[in-house]
Amino acid sequence: MPNRSALLVIDMANDFLFAPGTIATAGGADYQRRAQALIPRVARLLAGARAAGIPVIYATDAHAPGDGELAKWPPHAMKGTDAAAIPAALAPQPQDIVLEKRTYSPFLSTDLEARLRERGVTRLYLVGLHTDCCARHTSGDAFQKGYDLVWVTDALQAFTEEAHQAGLAYFKMWYATAPERQFRTTEELLAEWAEQAGAAP
pTM of the entire structure? Predict the structure, then answer.
């Protein structure tokens, strides 16, 4: 049911999408092309979720100096900077939830779980970056906490297409309990939500 679900948008911030962002620049031109290709798909999913009454939750890096992750990676998406901002095409609406995370998984550094519990959410639709890192760690935490997961395969991406596919394969191996239902494309999910909402796709 839509009101038991939420759309979780992971790390769709400027630093991950556009040069000269630290992450986007490190990924190179091919990565930037594939990451930016997510924007219109995620925008359509945002609109579809809102129309269907499905809560939208953004979980986006907003790092502070001294964060443990910065011992591994250079400073990126620093809190309060344009690099950590969500681009205008994906701008949150007043009813959306925006969480600033400081770890790969928002379950560790935000009150995501409390927000989900208070809304009775049991199913998470995952989109964003990166399939093999933040989406993977978020999926692992969510699975072990008992959430039903749906991955929108063409609205996730990684530094390479190979890494993206490896991430999806990992989800299927370790977390999926009904893969035929849990792996969806943008078009499939929009049609499903429209049907649930009693509207035409």
Answer: 0.96
